[in-house]
Amino acid sequence: MDKLHTIQVFIEVANLKGFSAAADKLGLSAPVVTRSIAELEGRLGAKLFNRTTRHVRLTEAGTRFLQDAKRIVEDLQEAEAAVKGVYTKPSGTLSVTAPVLFGEKHVMPIVTEYLERNQEVSVKAMFYDRITSLVEEEFDVAIRIGHLKDSGLYAINVGGLRRIVCGSPGYFEKYGTPIVPADLRKHSIVFPLTTGNISQWSFNNHGKKEVIKLNPRLRCNQIGSALKATVLGHGITSLLSYQVAEELEKGNLKAILTDYEEAPIPVNVVHLEGRRVNAKIRSFIDLAAERLRSNPFINP
Length: 300
Prior knowledge:
Elements: H1 3-16, H2 19-26, H3 30-44, E1 49-51, E2 56-58, H4 60-84, E3 92-98, H5 100-117, E4 121-127, E5 141-145, E6 154-161, E7 163-167, H6 169-175, E8 190-192, E9 200-205, E10 208-213, E11 218-220, H7 223-231, E12 237-240, H8 241-250, E13 254-256, E14 265-271, H9 279-293
Parallel strand pairs: 3-4, 3-5, 8-11
Antiparallel strand pairs: 1-2, 5-14, 6-14, 7-12, 7-13, 9-10
Helix pairs in contact: 1-2, 1-3, 1-4, 2-3, 5-9
């Protein structure tokens, strides 16, 4: 196996955190992948992975080499793509993912505009309320809400989302309005399970984190259901600013405890490719970043 192919095998093992998974992705047998990594380690004189029966993790040397390996492959792909012209005109199929409600409300308009602009591109838009793997599920671009944990991704920040505690004006008129976070314990709570299974909300109380444990009367596994119940006056909920913005504007909901909100949650456009992505990805990222940064529901 030549040096470049060996490096590509190494990158896949590192990305997928497994020899078998890399073998499946590359269409190779597991022994070939194992032998390729052994040859690479022998040539470098360094151990690249720590292996157990359950886990494959990069060593410190492997982590350093991964960055160089990716750069080598990117340089070659860039040279080939420049000859083929894929950096100059968008073409092919673009795969995009985002959270469900965010995707429906704020990503799909970008996708349709992108398709109108680029007639030689088709788009696969898949929306999930979970963290997708760009490598394993073969997505080109993802819009992520939250702090990023995967350092292997390239990210462009496009704004932030407030977490807003709110209820209907009718509910507050009938049961009173909480003044401090602890007052929530006296109220009917509509708890969206997408925020976690532990029934608690966090606040910033004069620079210190305050966690309020709750006993929700209603738990919902869908944002839309929690939002509907809250608008109908069945309690107080906590949702992201883009999820409640329209109802707040209409006056159907009222935000409370705004002085106790934590820092906004970041929104990022993320992708795998490095310094110079191909035209179909770059043109979508540029459009998405422009539209999302100017979206008042995302940067309230």
